[in-house]
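Weekly sync, protein design subgroup
Attendees: M.S., D.O., the rotation student, P.L. (late)

Item 1: inverse folding check
M.S. brought a backbone from last month's batch and wanted to see whether the design step gives back something sensible before we order anything. D.O. pointed out we never logged the input encoding, so this time it goes straight into the notes. Structure tokens as presented (191 positions):
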């Protein structure tokens, strides 16, 4: 075996090993996205399980606020459908509706002293608020994982391996521009 043949074999072996390293790194970032989505999915299911309980307790006291309760229920249904289909844009819009609806809901609940005194309502309210905060935290992790994945599959030489093995970008979980603005509490109390 000549020196040229040995050199070619070493180069082929080095390229093969480098491809394996890139492939494994791409698999790791892809699974990080899946794991971070699973964390959000669990929290969304928990929150979606708590919302009907909260609405049921409130319905007993808030007979004149059916529109608010219905908006939350409808937004929850849209969020569950988007969650099942993996449609990040629709999920972001539905989650925005839920958060706005809950903000309005809790503002309106202030006008019902009997409801505010109800321990079940208070526990459910704290639970839903805690889940909302946890979902917001997990969204950051999800979007960071998606960003790492999407950047990695576009960088050279990773892009060559990513295209060859069919790695795809993921969608960020984004929200409406209204999410980035301060909440107008006065408007919540007027409606």
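Designed sequence read out in the meeting:
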């Amino acid at each position: 075996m000549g020196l040229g043949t040995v050199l070619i074999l070493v180069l082929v072996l080095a390229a093969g090993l480098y491809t394996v390293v890139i492939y494994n790194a791409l698999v790791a970032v892809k699974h990080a996205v899946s794991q971070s989505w699973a964390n959000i999915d669990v929290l969304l299911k928990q929150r979606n399980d708590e919302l009907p309980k909260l609405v049921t307790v409130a319905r007993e006291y808030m007979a004149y606020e059916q529109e608010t309760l219905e908006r939350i229920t409808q937004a929850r249904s849209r969020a569950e459908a988007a969650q099942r289909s993996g449609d990040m844009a629709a999920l972001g819009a539905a989650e925005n509706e839920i958060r706005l609806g809950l903000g309005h809901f809790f503002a309106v609940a202030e006008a019902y002293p009997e409801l505010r005194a109800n321990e079940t309502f208070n526990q459910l309210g704290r639970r839903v608020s805690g889940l909302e905060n946890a979902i917001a935290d997990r969204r950051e992790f999800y979007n960071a994982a998606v960003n790492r994945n999407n950047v990695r599959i576009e960088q050279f030489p990773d892009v060559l391996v990513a295209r060859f093995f069919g790695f795809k970008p993921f969608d960020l979980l984004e929200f409406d521009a209204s999410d980035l603005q301060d909440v107008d509490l006065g408007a919540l109390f007027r409606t």
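Discussion: The chain has seven helices and no strands. Helices lie at 3-61, 66-85, 88-109, 113-117, 119-152, 158-165, 185-190.
Action: P.L. to compare against the previous round before Friday.
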